[in-house]
């Protein structure tokens, strides 16, 4: 099996798209919001309420989640395709600049940005970090949820492209 074959097989598994966000207090005197698009996000347990996100080891978000245990995941709607692409960019683009035009509120439980227009948001506190190959699995307790009256279906990632249901 080649890496290309492995990627091709898993690209056929549709996944929901979320924006993982946290407040980076080390970024300047007032801190700054930071975000990353993720498709490896799932519910782990109802009691206690736990979720898991997989982040690339050595990435800015992995480094941030190591020192900042409070974060959030906004479950993106099909109308937020451009937003998902914006935060999926590689490199060290300033997150402060990325967030300038993103309507968001600040989560009450975590202080992390919650993206407006998302289907739902969960606020989390990291409980466990597990190295797994070239990624780190971050298991977190859900501290709160937001269920806004957003319309539309979920944004999906399938065969290496963003898609909508139907």
Index terms:
single chain; Pnp Oxidase, Chain A; 17% helix; 12 strands; 44% strand; alpha+beta; 166 residues; three-stranded antiparallel sheet; seven-stranded antiparallel sheet
Task: Explain how this protein is built.
With 166 residues, this protein is of the alpha+beta class. It has a single domain, classed as Electron Transport, Fmn-binding Protein, Chain A (Pnp Oxidase, Chain A), CATH 2.30.110. The protein is built from four helices and twelve strands; from the N terminus they run H-E-E-E-E-E-H-E-H-H-E-E-E-E-E-E. The strands form three sheets. The chain has a seven-stranded antiparallel beta sheet. A three-stranded antiparallel beta sheet has the order 1-11-12, with no helix packed on it. A hairpin with a 2-residue loop joins strand 11 and strand 12. The model has no long low-confidence stretch (mean pLDDT 91).
Offer a concise description of the structure.
The protein has 166 residues and is of the alpha+beta class. The chain has helices spanning 3-10, 60-67, 81-87, 95-99, and strands spanning 15-16, 18-24, 32-38, 41-45, 50-56, 70-75, 104-106, 113-115, 120-132, 135-146, 155-158, 161-164. The chain is globular.
């Amino acid at each position: 099996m080649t890496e290309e074959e492995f990627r091709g097989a898993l690209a056929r598994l549709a996944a929901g798209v979320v924006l993982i966000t946290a407040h980076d207090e080390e970024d300047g005197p007032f801190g700054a919001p930071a975000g990353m698009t993720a498709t490896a996000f799932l519910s782990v347990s109802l009691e206690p309420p736990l979720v898991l996100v997989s982040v690339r080891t050595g990435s800015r978000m992995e480094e941030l989640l190591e020192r900042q245990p409070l974060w959030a995941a906004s479950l993106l709607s099909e109308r937020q395709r451009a937003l998902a692409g914006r935060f999926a960019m590689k490199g060290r683009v300033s997150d402060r600049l990325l967030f300038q035009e993103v309507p968001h509120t600040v989560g009450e439980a975590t202080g992390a940005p919650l993206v407006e227009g998302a289907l739902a948001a969960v606020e989390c506190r990291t409980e466990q970090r597990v190295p797994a190959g070239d990624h780190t699995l971050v298991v977190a307790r859900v501290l709160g949820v937001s269920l806004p009256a957003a319309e539309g279906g979920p944004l999906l990632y399938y065969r290496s492209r963003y898609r909508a249901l139907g």
